[in-house]
Specification:
The chain is α/β, with parallel strands linked by helices and about 240 residues long. It contains 8 helices and 5 strands; from the N terminus they run βαβαβααβααβαα.
Length: about 240
């Protein structure tokens, strides 16, 4: 019998690949998506598509309005940075950082997991080809896992020992894409752009698009997601 696992599923490339890895390891998938007031809400529709493709057992979308806090280009009226070099991305934490987002998300995933008696939680964070977010680092994931096993009834009573899986954390974007292709992920269903147009087409210039397109180029593949006219290396 398959073991249940909670999958944080944003609708982006990384979370879709993480979910596919969990499925390949024999887990039964319980997907959790967060409608947190993000400007790129099209990713929620993508999460539904990806969940259907991967055959999730149950998909839950929670609403938590982080626009009440703001302070991020994803949750406030702040311009999304465009056309930055990889060196610029690695020079500091960008304005697209949403304060404590992964801590909020993992806490909700932990609560969901405890109700399911699921000891395993998957998150698609990456600390190689990323924009410098502090809550994407291995030491953060390890710290949250320690906290999870101190903070829940199921762990204190010895019924569950939680594991936070971050299977992409040490992979390049190209390696993530190749792994996903091997596992049958349809990247045409996913959306990564921070600033898509009203039709849902990606801008091709924000950090998420830049890293994604570079990953497809390095992998020797064409990105099947929709982009605005003039963007290179997409279908």
């Amino acid at each position: 019998m398959s073991k249940p696992a909670v999958i944080l599923l944003s609708g982006g490339l990384d979370s879709a690949t993480s979910a596919a890895i969990a499925r390949s390891q024999g887990f039964e998938l319980y997907a959790l998506s967060l409608d947190y007031g993000q400007r790129h809400r099209g990713e929620l529709e993508a999460a539904q598509r990806v969940g259907e493709q991967l055959g999730v057992k149950r998909q839950v979308t929670l609403q938590i309005d982080l626009r009440a806090f703001g302070a991020s280009a994803l949750t406030a009226d702040i311009d999304v940075p465009k056309s930055r070099s990889v060196e610029q991305m690695h020079s500091g934490i960008p304005i697209t950082y949403v304060p404590a987002r992964n801590t909020v998300f993992l806490s909700l995933a932990l609560g969901y997991a405890e109700t399911l008696s699921a000891a395993d939680i998957f998150i698609g964070v990456n600390a190689v080809d990323y924009s410098g977010y502090p809550d994407c680092r291995p030491e953060y994931i390890e710290a949250f896992e320690r906290m999870a096993n101190l903070a829940t009834k199921a762990s204190v009573e010895g019924r569950l020992k939680f594991t936070i899986h971050a299977p992409l954390v040490a992979l390049t974007k190209a390696e993530i894409i190749r792994r996903g292709v091997e596992l049958g992920v349809d990247y045409g269903l996913t959306r990564s752009c921070y600033d898509p147009d009203p039709s849902g087409a990606a801008c091709g210039a924000c950090d998420a698009c830049t890293l994604r397109l570079a990953g497809f180029t390095e992998a020797g593949l064409v990105d099947p997601a929709p982009y605005r006219p003039g963007t290179m290396n997409h279908s």
